[in-house]
Design a protein that fits this description.
About 50% of the residues lie in helices and about 10% in strands. It is an alpha/beta fold and about 500 residues long. Among the domains are: about 200 residues, Rossmann fold (3-Layer(aba) Sandwich); about 140 residues, no CATH class. Helix 9 links the parallel strand 3 and strand 4. Helix 15 crosses helix 16.
């Protein structure tokens, strides 16, 4: 029999994980990390991989696990953080000079980090790193060969140098590039020059592999502003999740917390209806709510309120567990979730504002402008729009506020609709033949056209935002909001 849960701050963090991978111990992270196909695509032995996804989709976690595994395999991973490159790519004279500055700067940073790893750091050697036409891998190999027998190295450093001389490969991870991102023209040009520089360096140095993570809004702005970035399109790996994958992720965290063995493939093949039994170790099986939320399985509540982002699930479960802690409950119950829905909703809208204000500075006015009218609040179906109704709603909002994107372009109603869908504020919604509701996210249909086309879908404000948008009639959410189903459909919605 499993021991009764005692929720405290340490237990909650160990059980559900930290919201950000940087704060998680590598031991616990590797223990519960769920490896989907994205991991293998990013870590493939290819010159350039660009991991693109929203905040909270696990980009930093993937890099952290990948770096750890590379080290265990005797390879040489190098992590470059934003502060390492803070002064690079700021040459305003022309784009080509920016690229050269990036290349020289990256060569110097990589070389210095490599020599430090080997215990061979020498200013005389590193000063030669940026010589014109210098091949980084060749230079590092030659320098190590000369120095390794004349300097005292630890056993670990000897193994590392021997492996490097054999493989002649360096894997460079560049993470958190969106830190300090403001979406200004200067920011876009700088990132574009960086991507061009990385592409050049990887082509010029066999064995020099780059893994770069970019927030999706950063990538879109760069990709649509600079045609030279079309050459990197084939190197992009999208960090996206299905609800089933996120549920498996949660199940794995619970199982590993209790010390159970985990077979990811088995979990992925197991219907959600059966996966729910694992949740019962830490939370009630059913949600004893009202309306459409009465006596439904708890996993449906969880999957309905997250935006297909693991961080949403961590936050939702952690907040509810903190409520259980306050009542000394060994299980997270319906009352605990109900107590935190409004806080959770407020957090999600603030996260969205913070993430996308660099693209649309007055995004807050747009989101809160989407509060339902009295007529819509009284409707039986909740905050759902046909395409025509959505465009009309946005035109009404535009009468009070001018929405201007960071690039200076005034936003039309159609463009605002696209934007709301792209940032997961809206989901595409359709009732299928079975009578069940199919919801499609932008990540599943990310192709943008010049006009907002519905392809038979209506538009629904994501459930995560409902509490903050209609605080005066929260109870109506339970009566009107249909929960997600276990459907996995392959219908494509193109924009």
């Amino acid at each position: 029999m499993n021991r009764a849960m005692v929720f405290d701050d340490e237990t909650i963090q160990k059980l559900f994980g930290f919201e950000d991978a940087e704060s998680e111990s590598i031991e616990r992270l590797k223990e519960y990390y769920f490896k989907k196909d994205t991991f293998d695509r990013v870590t493939a032995e290819l010159p350039l991989r660009i991991l693109v996804g929203h905040k909270g989709t696990g980009k930093s976690a993937l890099f952290k696990v990948a770096i750890s595994e590379e080290k265990e395999a005797g390879n040489l991973p190098i992590l470059i953080k934003p502060d390492d490159i803070a002064e690079l790519g700021k040459n305003n004279e022309n784009f080509l000079l920016r690229i050269r500055q990036w290349k020289n700067g990256l060569i110097k940073i990589i070389g210095e980090k490599v020599f430090s790893e080997f215990g061979l750091y020498d200013e005389k050697a590193t000063s030669k790193l940026t010589q014109f036409g210098l091949k980084l891998i060749s230079f590092i190999s030659e320098t190590i060969n000369v120095a390794k027998d004349n300097i005292s190295l630890t056993e670990g450093q000897k193994i590392l140098t021997d492996n490097f001389l054999k493989k002649k490969r360096i894997i460079v991870y560049i993470d958190d590039l969106d830190r300090g991102w403001e979406g200004k023209k200067e920011d876009i040009i700088r990132i574009s020059a960086l991507l061009n520089a990385i592409r050049d360096l990887s082509n010029e140095n066999s064995g020099l592999l780059f893994k770069v993570s970019l927030r999706s809004d950063v990538y879109y702005l760069v990709r649509t502003s600079d045609e030279s970035t079309d050459k990197i399109e084939g190197s992009v790996v999208w960090c996206k999740w299905t609800n089933h994958e996120i549920l498996v992720l949660l199940i794995k965290r619970i199982l590993t917390y209790f010390g159970d063995s985990v077979d990811e493939n088995t979990l992925m093949k197991t219907p959600q209806l059966h996966l729910r039994f694992h949740l019962e170790r830490v939370m009630e099986s059913t949600f004893s709510g009202r309306g459409k939320w009465e006596n439904v399985y708890m996993y449906k509540i969880l999957m309905s309120l997250i935006r297909k982002r693991p961080r949403d699930l961590v936050k939702l479960c952690s907040l509810a567990a903190q409520q259980a802690q306050q009542t000394n409950s060994p299980l997270i119950k319906t009352e605990h979730f109900q107590a935190i829905f409004e806080e959770y909703s407020q957090g999600r809208i603030q996260d969205t504002i913070n993430e996308y204000k660099s693209e649309l500075p007055n995004i807050e006015n747009l989101l809160f402008g989407m509060r339902p009218t009295k007529i819509l609040r009284n409707a039986s179906y909740g905050i759902i729009y046909t395409t025509a109704e959505l465009i009309q709603k946005l035109n009404n909002i535009r009468q009070h506020t001018n929405f201007i994107f960071k690039n200076g372009r005034k936003a039309s109603a159609n463009e605002l609709a696209q934007f709301l869908y792209k940032i997961n504020f809206l989901t595409a919604r359709k009732i299928v033949e079975s009578g069940e509701i199919q919801r499609k996210y932008f990540e599943e249909n990310r192709y943008i056209s010049s006009s907002f086309v519905d392809f038979g879908y209506d538009w629904e404000v994501h459930p995560a935002f409902r509490w903050v948008l209609q605080p005066e009639n929260i109870n109506e959410i339970f009566n009107k909001l249909a929960l997600c189903h276990d459907l996995v459909n392959k219908i494509l919605l193109k924009f």
